[in-house]
Amino acid sequence: HSYSTIAWAASAHKGVIENVDYGYKATTTPGKVFGFFNALGDVAFAYAGHNVVLEIQATIPSTPEKPSKGPMWRGVIVAYIVVALCYFPVGLIGYWMFGNTVEDNILVTLEKPKWLIAMANMFVVIHVIGSYQIYAMPVFDMIETVMVKKLNFKPTTMLRFIVRNIYVAFTMFIAITFPFFGGLLGFFGGFAFAPTTYFLPCIMWLAIYKPRRFSLSWCCNYVCIALGLCLMILSPIGGLRSIILNAKDYDFYS
């Protein structure tokens, strides 16, 4: 929340730039369409997180009298409110001040004061250090399960140390090689997070509760499935196009 507050407060303090343009950044119809697809992926990434919900809920004490779904539901509601309070001011105020010249990372657009931008980036690092562990935990668990059950490795501390460090090194290599923030968010938001957030839970709910066909809940879930499937297909296309366009003029490892 700290670096989000710095971003929108500094933008508001800087004021609306001269000759601000609120139109599309792209000038062609395909550019506008694919940019829209990429933006959908960005939003999906921002409100993703259901891939770690079960991991978090598993740590909450649960009894038949006090099931964990109660506190978990309240926690999810609070989490979404906090996310909205962090992201919406940045998006609205940032676009109001800079228009379509705003960068994927608004801190780059601000430029000054450098000490404040450095502080915001420090808060980002602190946030990522904690959140990375949570988001990567299901991946760690999956890799270690395959290594032990399929490849017959012994479940030792050394195996866990090596596997996790290799995964972290791999993700760091990808981040350094393709530092295209907006494109990557759009791609992974649609490809990785849309299924676990927007339509797989609906499929699971339908399979478990089997509501009456064409009832309100049945229709709502199928609408969510259709929208989530479209999001999973279209957003990575927009994100991949953005990455390709940015890579044309980018000097890798410069």
Automatic annotation (TrEMBL):
Its localization reads: Cell membrane; Endomembrane system
For the keyword Transcription, the answer is no
Gene Ontology BP annotations = amino acid transport; auxin-activated signaling pathway
Q: Name one Pfam family in it.
A: Aa_trans
InterPro entries given for it? AA_transpt_TM
One example of the protein's molecular function in GO is: symporter activity
Q: Does the keyword Cell membrane apply?
A: yes
Q: Which UniProt keywords apply?
A: Amino-acid transport, Auxin signaling pathway, Cell membrane, Membrane, Symport, Transmembrane, Transmembrane helix, Transport
A cellular component term, taken from the record's GO annotations: plasma membrane
Please state the protein's primary subcellular location: membrane
Q: How does this chain sit within the bilayer?
A: Multi-pass membrane protein
Q: Which residues cross the membrane?
A: 76-98, 118-140, 161-181, 187-208, 220-244
The record's similarity note reads:
Belongs to the amino acid/polyamine transporter 2 family. Amino acid/auxin permease (AAAP) (TC 2.A.18.1) subfamily.
Know the name of this protein? Lysine/histidine transporter 1-like protein
